[in-house]
Amino acid sequence: MFELIWLIPLLPFAGFAVLALAGSRLSRGVVSVIGTGSVGLSAALAVVTFAGFSISPPPGNAYVLPLWRWVTVGGFSPQVSLCLDALSAVMVLAVTVVSFFILLYSSEHMAREEGFSRFFACMDLFVGSMLTLVLADNLLVLYLGWEGVGLCSYLLIGFRYEDSANVRAANKAFIVTRIGDTALAIGLILLFIQLDTLSIREILVQAPQRWFPDSGVAVWAALLILGGAVGKSAQLPLQVWLPDAMAGPTPVSALIHAATMVAAGVYLVARTHVLFTLAPSVGGLVAVVGAVTLLMAAASALAQSDVKRVLAWSTISQIGYMFLALGVGAWSAAIFHFMTHAFFKALLFLSAGVVIAALGEERDMGRMGGLRRDLPAAFWTFLIGASSLSALPLVTAGFYSKDLILFMAWTSGTGGPWLWAAGIAGSFLTGLYAFRMVFLIFFGERRTAPAERPGRAVTIPLVVLAFFSLVSGFLQMPAALAPVTIFSDFLSRSLPPLRGVPVSFTTEVILFLDAMIMPVLGIAAAWWLYLRRPGLPERWAGTAAGSALRRFWHSGWGFDGLYGAVFVRPFTSFARLNRDDAVDLIYGGLAWYSAGLSSLLTRTQSGRLRRYAIGIVAGVVIALGLVIWFKESP
Amino acid sequence: MNGIPVEQGLIVAGLLFVLGVAGVLIRRNVLFILLSLEIMLNASGLAFVVAGARWLQPDGQVMFVFILAVAAAEVALGLALILWVYHWYGTLDADRACGMRG
Prior knowledge:
Helix content of chain B: over 70%
Oligomer: heterodimer
Largest sheet of chain A: 2 strands, antiparallel
Order of helices and strands of chain B: HHH
Distance between the termini of chain A: 100 Å
Structural class of chain B: mainly alpha
Strand content of chain B: under 5%
C-alpha cells in the first residue's frame, strides 16, 4: 500500500507546473483550487499512508521505493529513491497537513494581491521540495530538496519585489543560507569519498563500522552537516536571515517557520543521527548552539515592536530547543517539538496575519491594542497559539514537548544542569514575550480600528490548527503525570529510543514542577508589566542602560552590524576598489597596444593607386637587388 | 642570325619598361596610367622576342602573341573601369579616387 508515496511530492510539483505554465490565464478561483487542492490531495495521501504505516509497518520499519538511477559516472551512481520510515512519516504528515491549511488560508488572505498564481506556484514548489527532502533515501536527492527549499524561500520572501527592501531581505536569506549549503555540500563529498555511497541507510550502517568514535573524519562529517543545518534552521551564528525574512507575505512566513525550510536542519540532524553519536564532541556543540541560540533569540524577541519579528525570533528560539534536544541525543523529543511547534507557530502567524490585514498592513504592536472584541476569532486562536508557545502547563501541546526536552536535557548522558538551566530560563522568557504580544495586541485601549473581518477560508485553518496546538501534546506525557509514550514509541522504529540516566522520583517531580512553574511565572510577569503597570517597561527603556540594552536586543545582539563590519563592508569596498578589475588591466593593455599598432599601419593604407604602385616597384627593386647581391657575393 | 646584339635589344626593352614604370608613377590621369601599362607590357614582349632570337626559338614570338592577347583584354577591362571611374568621381585623377583609404 506504500507504492503510491511517490505521489506525495509529485502532486505539489504538478500543481506548481500547471500554475507556472498556465497560471496567468486561469481565474483566481481555479488557481487557488489547483494550488490548495494539490497539497490537500497529498495531505490526504499522507494521512492514509501514515495510518497504514502505524497499523501494519513494512518489514524492517522502512519502505524504500526505488524510482530510477540518476546518473552513472564511474563508481558514482546515486539512486533516486524514496524512503518511508517512522521519522519521514511523521514529517510528511506534519508538513502536508500544516501546509494545506496555510494554503487554504492564503486563498482568502492573498485574494487581492498581485501575482496570485505566482504565489501559489511558488508555495506548491516549496511544499514539493520539502517533501522531496523529507522522503529522500539518498543524500543527493535530499540535497535537491534542500536547494529547492532555499530557492523557494528566496522567491517568496521577495514576493513583493517592487520594494527594494524586500529584495534585499530575499538576497540576505539566500546568501546566508548558502553558506550553510556549501558546508553541507562539502560534507556530502567527504561522506562519498570516505564511504563510497550517498545512500542514507548505508551511511548510517557503514559509518560506525569504518570510523572510530571521535576520529577526525567523523568529527568533520558531523561538523559540516551541522553547518548546513545551522544555516537552514537559522541557528547561531547564521540566524541573521530569519528576522529579515519577515518581508514576505504572512502565509509565507507561516510556511517557512512552521512546516518547511527551518525544520529542514532539525530533520537533517535527526536523519543522520548516527554521525553525531559517533562524534560526541560535535553533539555537545549542537546542544550548546541550541542553548545559546534559544536564550539569545528569546531576549531579542522581547525588544521587538513588529509582531512578525517577535514571531521570527521566537521561531529561532524554539528551533534552539530542538537543537538542544538533538544535542543531548533526545532525537524523538526534537521531532516531537518540531510537530507541536509546526502547529502553534503556523497558528500564531496566521492569526497575526488576520490582525495585520484587518489593520491595513499595520505590524507595529505599539499601534495595536484592545482588539479582543473586534477580532474574536483571531484573539482566541492567537491566545491558544501563544499559550502553546509559552508552554502553559497541562493543557497545551507546547508544554508536553518542551517538558520532554527539558527533562532530557537534565537526565540524558550528554546533558547536564547547565543545558537544563538555559532551557528553563528560556521558558520563562518565552512566556514573557509570548504574552507581551497577546497583551499589547488584544488588551489595553484600542488605538487602530480594524477595517475588515476574516472570512471562512481564514477561520477554518485557524480553528483546526488551534485544535492541534492543544491536543497534539497528549501523544507523549511526562512519566510523573501519565505514562503515555505513543510518540516516542512510534519514532523508536527508526530513531534510537529516549535514554536517560535514571533519576529519583523526587528529582523527576521537581523537574516537572519547574517546567510547569517557569512559563506561568513568565506569563505573570508579562501581565504585571504590560497590563498592571503599563508604563514600567517604557520607564526602564528610558534609562541609559535600558535603552542601550533595548537597542542591542532589538538589533539581534548586534550580529547584523558585526557581519556588516567584518564581512560585508570589506567585501563591498574591495569590490569598489577593484571596480575596473585589476587582472583585466593586462588584457586591456594588450588590446590598447594592438589598437595603436593597427592605427599606425592604417596610415599606409592611403587609398592612392600610385603610392601602391611605388610600393610594388620598390619591392621588386629590393628583391632583385637582393638576388643580384647574393649572386655577386656568394 | 647576325642582327641586333642581344644586349642592345635587352637595354632597349629595359628602357621601355622603366619609361612605362615612370609613366605609371608620375601621371595622375588614369588613362595615361593605362597607356604606360601598355608600354610596360610591350617592353616585356620585346624582351621575349629578343631572347627568342638569341636562342633561335619560336617560343619568344609565341609569348608575344600571348602578351598581345592579355594586353587587349586588359585594355578592354581597363577602359570599362575608367569609364566607371569617370562616371563615379567626375574626374580621371587617380589621386582623387581614394575611397579605400584606411
